[in-house]
Specification:
46% strand, SH3 type barrels, mainly beta, 3 helices, 2 domains
């Protein structure tokens, strides 16, 4: 089974066990619906425990989530540093959308079909998502993940075709 990271528990919020989560998902409203299940992952041993969402609100970079199984501030404090994950489900995606984890490892080709590297990471900058591409020779480089640069994404073949302009490499 494959999991998606929704964020990392940063702190507590209030006395009732609400968790302050540094969010790394753009689908928090969908993920944290009351009754949905999520896994809290211990950073020490990667042990996963299933929890049930009771309530959710978002503010800035943080999601504030109350889980049924965390009922006071002491229980919440013991979860600081844990990752919040859900089971990956491709049915949750809109047409033409991808999970970041699907883009990692894709080979990147220029407009002539020449392989120029492999996606190492998907990074979020204020202006747009950006692919960090590693090359066998030379330093990593970045390609903005926008339609002006991305010609085609084929997740099944793990291939991304990009418009490479002068100065990008």
């Amino acid at each position: 089974m494959e999991y998606l990271k929704l964020g990392t528990i940063n702190d507590t919020f209030g006395l009732d066990g609400t968790l302050k989560i540094y969010s790394t998902t753009n689908q928090a409203n969908k993920r944290y619906q009351p009754g949905n299940k999520a896994f809290l992952v211990n950073p020490q041993d990667n042990a996963k425990e299933e929890y049930t969402v009771v309530s959710f609100r978002h503010s800035g970079l943080f999601d504030f989530v109350k889980f049924e199984e965390v009922n006071d501030i002491n229980a919440a404090q013991s979860k600081k540093g844990y990752e919040v994950q859900v089971v990956k489900n491709n049915k949750d995606l809109d047409e033409g959308s991808y999970y970041y984890s699907d883009l990692r490892g894709c080979k990147v080709f220029d407009q002539a079909g020449k392989e120029i590297g492999v996606v190492k990471e998907v990074e979020e900058f204020p202006a747009q998502l950006t692919l960090r591409v590693s090359r066998s020779k030379g330093p990593d480089f970045f390609i903005p993940f926008i339609k002006q640069f991305i010609i085609k994404v084929d997740i099944e073949k793990k291939a991304i075709f990009a418009e490479i302009i002068e100065g990008l490499l």
